[in-house]
Amino acid sequence: DTEVTQTPKHLVMGMTNKKSLKCEQHMGHRAMYWYKQKAKKPPELMFVYSYEKLSINESVPSRFSPECPNSSLLNLHLHALQPEDSALYLCASSQARGQGEDTQYFGPGTRLTVL
Amino acid sequence: AQKITQTQPGMFVQEKEAVTLDCTYDTSDPSYGLFWYKQPSSGEMIFLIYQGSYDQQNATEGRYSLNFQKARKSANLVISASQLGDSAMYFCAMRALTGRRALTFGSGTRLQVQP
Fold this sequence. Notes:
The complex is a heterodimer.
Chain A lengths: L3 E4 L2 E4 L4 E8 L5 E7 L6 E7 L2 E5 L6 E7 L2 E7 L7 E8 L10 E2 L3 E5 L1
Parallel strand pairs in A: 2-11
Antiparallel strand pairs in A: 1-3, 3-8, 4-5, 4-9, 5-6, 7-8, 9-10, 9-11
Chain B lengths: L1 E4 L4 E5 L4 E3 L2 E4 L4 E8 L6 E7 L7 E2 L2 E6 L4 E6 L8 E9 L7 E2 L3 E6 L1
Parallel strand pairs in B: 2-12
Antiparallel strand pairs in B: 1-4, 3-9, 5-6, 5-10, 7-8, 8-9, 10-11, 10-12
């Protein structure tokens, strides 16, 4: 089973709202990722958690706040977003092997619209 | 630094025919992995196939095969017997096999399968 789930599928929020995106996997993976994808562009890495610790932050603005409560869950808290933050947000997970393939498996994404 | 180049923004193929999607890469890492993902209009990134830089044989997964030419730094995806459901965006990606877990994606190729 290579399933990563994400909720909600769609989210519309105002610039003053606070919302959260949720990602869950039950594959025993120990690395989890957030990507942002604008239309007709490849995904861009935002954050990486490895063994529940933040290991990569790609200079993401502080209005995006990641959280990894346990090895199966990954949240992305959103606050005071801008219209240009509207995008598809993809979560992924991998085994976190130190070496080797370590394929990332993606969820279906959350389509975010900021008004 | 790593770079992935996909020079075909769009491709057309007739149903049941084979198609090759091009991918070239550049990296200074001595060992690396190459991945292909499919992204239908629904948004989910679906893992298709993996090739390690140290693998002597080209990877195959069902109708997908990877034409890996290390000296030319190319990792082309071959889809045999195209189906209408193959219509999607295809991304080539790579990562170093040690250290940083980030995937570097190419710009993608949109494949349209015609009946």
